[in-house]
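Batch manifest, entry 17 of 40.
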Amino acid sequence: MREDLRALYGEERLPRYTSYPPSPHFNTEIGTERYAAWLAGTPLGATASLYLHVPFCRSMCWYCGCHTSITRHDAPIAEYVGLLKREIDLVAARFGHLPLVRHVHFGGGTPTVMAPQAFIRLVAALRARFPVDPHAELAIEIDPRTLVPAMTEALGHAGVTRASLGVQSFDPVVQEAIRRRQGFDVTAAAVAGLRAAGVRGINLDLIYGLPHQTVASCVDTVRQCLELRPDRLSVFGYAHVPTFKKHQRHIDEATLPDGRVRLDQAEAIAETLVAAGYTCIGLDHYALPEDPLEIAQAEGRLRRNFQGYTTDPSDTLIGLGASAIGRLPQGYVQNAPGLRAYAERIGQGELATVKGYALTPEDRLRADLIEQVMCDFAVDVGSVCSAHGRDPEALLATLTRLPTLAADGLVRWNGDVLVVQADARTFVRNVAAAFDGHLGTSAAAHSRAA
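Output type: structure tokens
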């Protein structure tokens, strides 16, 4: 990697572009009535994905950036599962035509803290209210430290096809600093149990840029993960935003690696995984050959949504649960983030939507440009503009960051196609930002570009 790019672009705070515009731009003009109207307009033959947010954990990891609550008791979780079932009914009833569901994702928090039978019944409730494709992907996020055998069996019984296990780091010094003690043996046992239960797709999640983390400890963690031969790995840079996540104030900023070391860690992880036979997928995912993500990337079908890189082609994502975000062709919606507010709305038989964003034609154009850059490290500006009825020359005249990116060697033009240079792919978010018409109004809410 060129050293000059580190200094020029590594410290810039930018969105991860899992949506466009990013969630800080959502507003309260979008509420329950607008969301209900959007659902009612769903045409016959549409497809959709479902995301269910379970905002509970048994303990707080200090690096965490998720919406979650800590509870040692099962009653609040059981009550919440009941609310999810009620919301499933409320949302399904408002569709003009129920879409065929091909992807279901349980996120958190820690979804597997719910009782095993409660999870089985929740999945059954989903299948009862929505037409779920028999071959649909059913994915769930797991904290191996709290996964019990009965829950592992329940996941298999419910038809879960993919599990994402949080690892972050196996370095005990790092684990102590982030308040997440998790031995390799715990993770290995969870993986073995899931595979025995029929959950064939295994993802492991890693983080670099954590307190006390070194290049050597990152590589050591990857090598231990390779012993488990996961199908995929996701590798994210730690986003230190203590203004928004107060528990992150427990982390001593002096122990965080600087920008140069963070990039060295990311490069070392990538080199180790590629050498082990994994294909780099977009910015931060890795997959074995013939994995659906790898095939989608090779065929130009890779997409990006709130779960990161995906094979899901649907433009409709229904978010269920407190703080859950959904996307429809018309725009974005987000549920009340607080458990109490969410419970009150669902308990009263109302949708839980409190804010969102109505997409404009300009937003749709820029969203397509940004997604292509993030997924393919290239974008055919002329073709995308043509699909949206726009003059590419008029658009390019407004993109003031592009000439600088080209001068600095991050991108080059091949006719109408903008290509991210191979040695600058780490900074693909900086390139995507060149197409962002909303950039600059919420930088504090975003993470460093690398």
